[in-house]
């Protein structure tokens, strides 16, 4: 059997890694670390650091890095994602066949949590089928998937801004920048959390009466926070976002939008 553990490692602060994640790392026979290009070298650097600091016996656990397949940005979005996931599952299967031919436990270090806007669970669901095409001892091995939850960027955002996620007795909707642009404010939502925004989807909204809490590189030493009434701070967020992307070569950010300041009082915050 092959056991694949998807280990949530939080958003960049090693202190956010749970004891359950540490235990899963040390139980693994093989840990796979994806490389996402030089521009995002910070992401694999943190994974390397965690392996160095948290593995009790580095000689027992094999750590293997691999280049993550790229998604075709020109193709239809859903079709491109399906093909991309299939390519990643094939890469996982080939690595397991090469480095763990007799089966065993595999660990994948997942940024944030595997359940929130992360595709590792969908990719893992393809793995058993991929393993059937293997030519070595792993061919046909059953695959058991385990999930070790991690701290998400949404949790760090609310913690760093010191706000609750929802207004009192009101619902929250988690969405993407693409859907916000295409469909506007979700019906029935008093508060929305926006992830995977390529930049400035909030510009599609009428800003009056909306408050925003924004954060980039949450949990990392380059973390940046800004909040205020959207009409006032939207230009500052866009300017800051562009400067940070230029400086670091990549950016991951998230924001919360609400029609009231969530009952904690309005305070302007602009942290480098």
Strand content is 15-25%
Overall pLDDT score: 90
* Strands, total number: 11
The main β sheet shows up as: 6 strands, mixed
The number of distinct helices, counting runs of at least 4 residues, comes to: 8
Strand order of the largest sheet: 6-7-10-8-9-11
Shape: elongated
Which structural category do the helix and sheet elements fall into? Answer: alpha/beta
> What's the CATH topology name of the largest domain?
Cobalt-precorrin-4 Transmethylase, domain 1
Per CATH, the class of the largest domain reads Alpha Beta
CATH superfamily of the largest domain: Tetrapyrrole methylase, N-terminal domain
User: Mind telling me which CATH architecture of the largest domain this is?
Assistant: 3-Layer(aba) Sandwich
Low-confidence stretches: none
SSE order: EHEHEHEHHEHEHEEEHEE
* Computed Rg: 20 Å
Number of domains: 2
Alpha-carbon distance between the two ends? 48 Å
Helix content: 25-40%
């Amino acid at each position: 059997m092959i056991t694949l553990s998807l280990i949530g490692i939080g958003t960049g602060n090693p202190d956010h890694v749970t004891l359950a994640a540490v235990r899963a790392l040390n139980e693994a026979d093989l840990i796979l670390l994806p490389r996402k290009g030089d521009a995002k070298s910070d992401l694999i650097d943190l994974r390397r650091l965690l392996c160095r600091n948290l593995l009790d016996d580095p000689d027992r656990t094999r750590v293997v890095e691999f280049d993550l397949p790229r998604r075709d940005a020109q193709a239809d979005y859903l079709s491109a994602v399906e093909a991309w996931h299939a390519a990643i599952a094939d890469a996982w299967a080939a690595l397991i066949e090469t480095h763990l031919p007799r089966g065993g436990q595999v660990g994948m270090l997942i940024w944030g949590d595997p359940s929130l806007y992360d595709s590792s669970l969908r990719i893992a669901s393809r793995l058993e089928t991929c393993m059937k095409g293997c030519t070595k001892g792993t061919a046909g091995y059953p695959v058991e998937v385990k999930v070790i939850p991690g701290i998400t960027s949404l949790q760090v955002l609310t913690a760093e801004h010191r706000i609750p996620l929802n207004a009192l007795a009101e619902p929250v909707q988690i969405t993407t920048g693409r859907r916000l642009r295409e469909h506007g404010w979700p019906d029935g939502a008093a508060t929305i959390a926006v992830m995977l925004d390529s930049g400035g989807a909030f510009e599609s909204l009428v800003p009056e009466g909306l408050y925003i809490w924004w954060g980039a590189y949450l949990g990392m030493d380059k973390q940046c926070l800004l909040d205020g009434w959207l009409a006032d701070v939207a230009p500052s967020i866009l300017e800051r976002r562009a400067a940070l992307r230029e400086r670091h070569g990549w950016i991951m950010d998230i924001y919360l939008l609400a029609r009231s300041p969530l009952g904690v009082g309005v305070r302007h915050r602009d942290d480098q």
